[in-house]
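User: Teach me something about this protein's shape.
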Amino acid sequence: MARLSRISRACRHCIIAFALAVAGEARATPAGSGDEFRLVVWEGAEVQSALTPRLAEQLNVTPTDQFDVVDDSAVLLTTDGNLLDTSRRKLVGVEAKCTPHSMAFSAGVAVLVCGDKLGWYQDGKLRIATPLPTREMRVVAGSKQRLLLYGGKGEGSIVYLLDDGRVLPLLDVRHGTISALASVGTRVFFAVGNKLYVAAKGERPALLFVVHGEAEIRSIAVDPYAGLVYISAGDSVYAMRAGYAVAILRGMEGYVRWSRTGLFVLDSGRKRLIKLTGLQGLTAPAMVAASGQKPAGFKE
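Assistant: First, the predicted structure itself:
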């Protein structure tokens, strides 16, 4: 059997013991943000609005579910294939022969997938660089400027690594569609249905988490410094570490991206983007207290 990490070995035995608890209170968006809405957030967390339906209407944009964070600013891919810098409230046009459907930032450069081609944004145009194995693949930026792509393959899914212009197979999932993916170092976190897995090249995927009551994990983000994995499913966002999972946000059908100053959550259907700060309280003791359960044999 492939070697599993410490957290993976522990979670094989504690998967059904994860507690989904919210320690928080209802919050409204800050005054002057364009509209108000109600959320339940982790106690101590603060909510900052980066995009509201009113602002989206003023800018005449409709966001897709694709966005990334560069220089602590969330940049969104719009339905017409342009880029919206939410900090500057600036829309950047992208001239391309087709409409990009996936986007990530690597080394400060926007990388986009358009049909069966991968390219980068430069001087207002999409510069095509690499042909892809199939159409409609999605791109994700990992650490150390690694780029990963994933998409369907028969009854399953496949993950590729982009290395010096070459598209190399990294991970083959025989059954099920990958709904979300994130990467830190050589480790890949991915979701199939409502299950979260972790794997590295040459390893068998290890099951980390199951979101009971939800059909699909929508998005994944990783804070490598705090050792936290964030996932979104249904109208909630969860934080997971050391065998515990707690809900830190309810009220948005969001997609998540981590930055060093907070967690961005995008509800593209409602044209709303927020940033959660003050998550330093997500320590192991606090999460244990919120879950109300004992660890399932895991020791830090």
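Now, about its shape. The mean pLDDT is 85. The radius of gyration is 19 Å. If you'd like, I can walk through any region in more detail.
User: That's plenty for now, thanks!
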